[in-house]
Design goal:
CATH architecture of the largest domain: Sandwich
Distance between the termini: 146 Å
Helix content: 25-40%
Structural class: alpha+beta
CATH topology of the largest domain: Immunoglobulin-like
Strand content: 25-35%
Radius of gyration: 43 Å
Largest sheet: 10 strands, antiparallel
Number of strands: 10
Number of domains: 2
Shape: elongated
Number of helices: 3
Length: 242
Amino acid sequence: MAKLLEQSLEALSQTFSFILEAIKGLRLNPMLWESSNWLVLVLLLLLLYILVRALFRGPRQSNEPELLVSRGIIQQPESSPTQVLHIKISNLNEYPIQLLEMSLQSELMSAPFMVESAEIVAPHAAVELEAVLPNNIVGDKGVLELYAYLSKRQNKLYKLKTSFAWEPWAQRYKIEAVGQHLKRSKQLASTRLNQARKKAWYQYNMKSNVPVVQNEPEEPEETFVPKSKPPRQLDMDFPADF
């Protein structure tokens, strides 16, 4: 390792020495320049380009956007026939985001509950939402998915996934603020749900609308009955002169 470092320093020193010698021997007339002079000029221009680009380049965009469900509960108040979702969503990005929808599903539910949203969250701001669920959630734990539209990203649609669990002492579901995952998404949860419902609807109606094919009564096959001839009576009376 020490030998490699020594060789690197020696190569760097030789490069600087080469550049200094080329600058000393630089002539004003470019027609009289040697190849080493042109090489030094190219290196200086490249270094200048890198410095200018670093100065005027905007702040580097992070690899992934940052979105967080900072607080959330699902509880049934006395005034509501079903459970109510209370959630706070924080936008940690430098640009606004558009919330689209949320889906909630437990391990005992065959299909998720969909909650539509049209809130715009400002940069470094948060929004609190409240929604009455169509029915009560059953089960001890489940998954919440939040879908958002990010106009500043190449892939516009993102999905934030987190979990929720039942707290029997508080008679509510608590949405986890840690262990959340944000990733790109190709389509909304409602789109997948509608596709599944459409497929099931077509399958059900295709089965119920299939006409029952009734077989026509078969004609009896012709039975060949041979005609019976009357038995031939033999004349047993012999002539007298036989």
